[in-house]
Each structure stands twice: as structure tokens, then as C-alpha cells.
Amino acid sequence: MTAAPTYVDELRAAARHFSRHQFGRRRFLTTTGAAAALAFSVHLPATGTAAAAELDARRITENPFTLGVASGDPLPDSVLLWTRLAPRPYEAGGGLPTGTRAAVTWELAHDERFTRGVRRGSVIAHPEYAHTVHVEVAALAPGRPYFYRFRAGDWTSPVGRTRTAPPPGAHNTRLSLAAVSCQAYPDGYFTAHRHLAREDVDVVFHLGDYIYEYPVPSTAADRGYPVGTLPDVFNHETVTLEDYRLRYALYKADADLQAAHAAHPFVVTWDDHETEDNYADDIPQNGVPPEEFLIRRAAAYRAYWENQPLRTPQRPTGPDMRLYRRLRFGRLAQFDVLDTRQYRSDQAYGDGWQLPGPLVDDPARTLTGATQERWLTDGWRGSHARWNVLPQQVMFAERRNPTTPAPAYKLSMDAWDGYRASRQRVLAGAAAAGVDNLLVLTGDVHVAFAMDIKADHRDPGSRTVGTEIVTTSISSGRNGTDKPANHAALMQANPHMKFYNGRRGYVKVTLGLDSARADFRTVSAVTTPGAPLATAASFVTEAGRPGLTPA
Questions:
Q1: H or E stretch at 325
Q2: Mean pLDDT along residues 146-175
Q3: How many C-alpha atoms does 123 have within 13 Å on its Cβ side?
Q4: Is 316 helix (H, G, I), strand (E, B) or coil?
Q5: How far from the centroid of its chain's Cα atoms is residue 71's Cα?
Q6: How far is it, in rounded angstroms, from Cα 15 to Cα 20?
Q7: What is the dihedral of CA 62, 63, 66, 72, to 10 degrees?
Q8: Which of these, 9, 135, 190, 215, is most buried using a 10 Å CB contact count?
Q9: Could you tell me where the DSSP H helices lie in 183-233?
Q10: Cβ within 8 Å of residue 148, ≥6 positions away
Q11: What is the pLDDT of residues 339-391, one digit of tens each?
């Protein structure tokens, strides 16, 4: 692992960012010293030998693998393995002595008992990265499962299972994935993750709101805690680096979430709550100056990278992090993972549900930023995949709110409806690239939808150009119901909407040469543990014929 950036490096990176946003370097350095000190606790790694680090590992007297293991971003010849040393995860620093460096050994094998080893090695877990470990294991065989584990001192982690992607150009005929999002800790148990751990899928896409920044009171009894037993350290909004690290520790200590991570490789992207609700680029929701908010954003982005199975290219620099990226699974599927938070224009008309005005069609406004938009459309031009899948955060297809009479329906200014010119450019790019089978995966809204994407939603006769599958939340919104109160009205106002369900769960998508199938999995409750799993509905879209039909 390379050395952690110094505090000065972070400030310089942030200053460059502010300079691009026309704040100026001097103003940044003058106004952010104290705030930066709260946001970062970053110094050069301590000097010393691997033997000294091993001695530090032997000082660990309690199980350091309390947050489980994970893998992510599978490539044909490589997997990314993750863990974090935190014997006392609800304490600052994870309960390790200040400045402790620990040698962590990793192992990869063909079998769960590790009798047929493949690779092994050792890395240093640095306090500068909250003792997280990111191991990129290379030179592996494509399209096959592997098992992995970690050791630190006398302790051994749980065993995880991962899988490499098929080889480039492979004529693979089947790929199974799951999409999940929105797991508010106080709202209920992560029961859906336990069921997901038992699914036969090749990869899981987490589409955002992995954590929530809101206070978690010590009386969060919905998760089974007796009143007052949850540490009060979580009972305030996340702002500093240590705040975000502790919040990830709270979530990752959940056994059901750990089970899903251990069972499948994850591909993650964020939405807003990993930083702050409904922020847009450097514009916060709470009205603080952008230069102050970007200090918070830098802390949030750093903690996100530390606590997710992400590769080195995604490691942030100050308040910037290149999260959008492309993964290919043979010739069957190309996944273009988007970031619709970091580069977007501010929401129009004060955010929320608003009647659309000229701003939503202003070509100067963007949800992705110009660079990411070019990257996306250029990637489509070079794609040879049967299915081009767009894992991203917010509703893509139009969603008319029937609380106002037609034709003046309100639209969500936080979704693609608030950036219609941006959406039309993306759809035009897909058409120019000859993308026949566009499949958008979405989270955010705490309900499940199956939607046809129209070339122009304002034209009733517009042709269908793609499919959007929206996964419900893992727990956000508590138990929910099969048919929310606005079910009939919303379906009537949106004839391209084929399915709407308000329970918690996830969606499983199976891609084949001729069709893609979406199975909407739901649980009956999240406020009590152990709810059974059901399939609320299934839909199919045929290759070359966009549009959803019940399976």
C-alpha cells in the first residue's frame, strides 16, 4: 500500500478544487484552517519495519475483524479484497492504540477450507486509513469463484467468496446480478441483505445511501437495542472524518450486511446521504459556504473510500473522487457506473417536487457534468455488449406527481426530471452509438418501479428506447406496503410505469442473450427481524425490443 497523503497534501488538493470554483487559494487557506483540522486526522505513516508492524498486530487482544470482509469491482484477472481492523468499532480509531500499524496477511484459495491456495501476501494497515485494507489481487483466472480471508496477529477473519469477471470478448450467455440501495439504520433490520447473501448472483450493485448522515439516537430500539444501549457517539449528524468513520462502523457491524458482502462481490456508487441530503456538487442543503461544505465533502469521500471495496484509482484527493467507472462482463454486458452527485448543477426551483419551468430544459445545466457525460457516450460508441447497463442513483424515466392535475404535473427536481436537457443528451448519445438494449438500474426512492424509458416523455406517442429497473430500499422508510396510498393515481399518471411496490427488499436481474428478467424481491417487515422473502413481481424485456412485459 502506498503512503497516505499528508494533511498538507489534502489542503493543497482542496485549494486546487476551490480555485476551479472561483473561490481563490488565499480565501480558502484563510477560512478553512480550523475546519480542516476537524475534518482530517491525516499524517505520514509511521516509519519502521514490517517486523515492527507485526509486533503491533500481536498487541491486538480482541477480535479486530468485527466489520467483516468484502470484495468489489471484479475484473477478468483481478479482484479487490477489503477489511478493516476495529476491535472496538464504536470507539474513535476502532479501539486500536494510537499510531498502531499492523501487518495483515491475506489468502486466496479455490476452496472454502483453503486446501487449494492460489495467492497470499501481506500488507500494512495504517491508522491514516482507519486501518482499512484494500488488496488488489492480480493474475487470476477469469470467470471463476475464489475464497479469501485475512489474518492479523492471532486473529483470522470470516471467509469471503468473490468472483472474477468473464474474459474480454467472451461469448457468455448468462449473468445474474442484484441491485440494492438505501439502508437507514434506525428504520429497521437489514433482513433483505441476509436473503441476498443466499441468492445465486455474480455481482451486487449498491446504488447509494449506504449510510445516512442523520443522528442515530441511543434509543434506536427498532433495531432491537434496549433503550440507551447504543453509544451516544452516533446521536449527531456526521460532519468530521471521525464522524463518518464511526457511522460506517455502525452499519458494517450489522451481521446481515456482512453476510451479503462476504457472499458476493459488490460494485458501489454513492448518492447523497453518504455526505449530506440532496447536496449538489459544492452546494450543500444547509446553506453553509461552499468552501466550508467541501471540507465536509472531503471527509465524507475519504471515509467512503476507506470503508468500501474500491480500487486505488477511486481513492480521493481532497474533496474530489473519481467514482464513475466502467466494468465489462464478456460480450454480454457493459456496466457504466455513474456519479450523479459530485458534478451536478444545483437543483432547480428550490429542489423537491415542482412544476417544471425553463430551467429543467436549460442545456447549460447538467446532472453528470460534461466530462462524465462525454465518458459515458464515448464508452457506448466503443461497446460491443449485448446489454448496456447504467447503474446510477436517481429516477431516470419521467415520474409525474398526480397531486396536480394534468398536464401540469409536478416533477422531482432532484431526479433526471429536473435536468431534462441532460437526460435528452444522454439518450441522444445512446441512439447515436446504436445502443439497442439500454437498461438503467436506479435506487434512491425507497420503492420499486419497473419503467419503460421513452425517447421523449412529453410526447405520448414517443417510442420506447430502454428499460429502468428501480430497486426499493433495504430498510429506509420502515416496513412500507405493497400498494402505497398513491398507487393507483401514480400508475394512471405514468402509463410507462409497469410496476410500483412499497415494500423493502432488492431486485435480482438475470441477463441472457435474448432477454433480461427482473425479479422484485420483498420482505414483509423490517421493524422485526427474520421476515420471509417473497417475489412481488417479475418482468422481462427482450433484446432488440425495449419495453417491459410481466414474466
A1: strand 325-329
A2: 97
A3: 22
A4: coil
A5: 13
A6: 9
A7: 140
A8: 190
A9: 191-197
A10: 69, 71, 79, 81, 106, 107, 108, 109, 137, 159, 160, 161, 162
A11: 999 999 999 999 999 999 999 999 999 999 999 999 999 999 999 999 999 99
Write the DSSP assignment of 111-142 as a string of letters. Answer: STT-SSEEEEEEEEE-GGGTTEEEEEE-SPPT
- According to DSSP, the residues that pair with 413 across neighbouring strands are none
**DSSP for 519-544?**
EEEEES-SSSS-PPEEEEEEEEEETT
Q: What integer is the mean pLDDT of 245-249?
A: 97
Q: Which residue has the cell 462482463?
A: 329
User: What b/e sequence results for 363-393 when a residue is b if at least 16 CB atoms lie within 10 Å of its CB, and e otherwise?
Assistant: eebbbbbeebbebbbebbeebebbbbbbbbb
- Residue 341, all three cell numbers: 452527485
Mean pLDDT over each residue of the chain, to the nearest integer: 90
* Contacts (Cβ under 8 Å, ≥6 apart) of 106: 81, 120, 121, 122, 123, 133, 135, 137, 148, 149, 150, 151
What distance in Å separates the CA atoms of residue 358 and residue 406, rounded to the nearest whole number? 18
Q: Where are the beta strands (DSSP E) in 250-324?
A: 266-268
CB-count exposure of residue 434 (10 Å: 0-12, 13-18, 19+): exposed
Q: At what angle do helices 370-381 and 420-432 cross, to 10 degrees?
A: 20
Whether the CA torsion 21, 22, 23, 25 is positive or negative: it is: positive
pLDDT for 490:
96
Q: Judge contact between 414 and 347, C-beta under 8 A.
A: yes
Average pLDDT score over residue span 460-466? 92
pTM here is: 0.92
Distance of alpha carbon 124 from alpha carbon 122, whole angstroms: 7
Cite the DSSP H helix spans in 334-417: 370-381
The number of residues in the chain equals 551
Q: Is the peptide bond before 407 cis (omega within 30 degrees of 0)?
A: yes
Q: How far apart are CA 513 and CA 332, in angstroms?
A: 7
Q: In this predicted structure, what is the pLDDT of residue 97?
A: 84
User: Given this model, what pLDDT does residue 407 score?
Assistant: 84
Q: Reading across the β-sheet that carries 497-501, which strands appear in turn?
A: 325-329, 333-337, 387-391, 438-442, 464-470, 448-454, 497-501
- What residues contact 51, with CB distance under 8 A and at least 6 apart? none
Q: What percent of the chain has pLDDT over 70?
A: 89
Answer whether 186's CB lies under 8 Å from 251's CB.
no
Which of 52-56, 215-219, 276-280, 526-530 is predicted least confidently?
A: 52-56
CA gap 24, 163 in Å, rounded: 46
Task: Please tell me the distance from the alpha carbon of residue 336 to that of residue 328, in angstroms, as a whole number.
Answer: 9
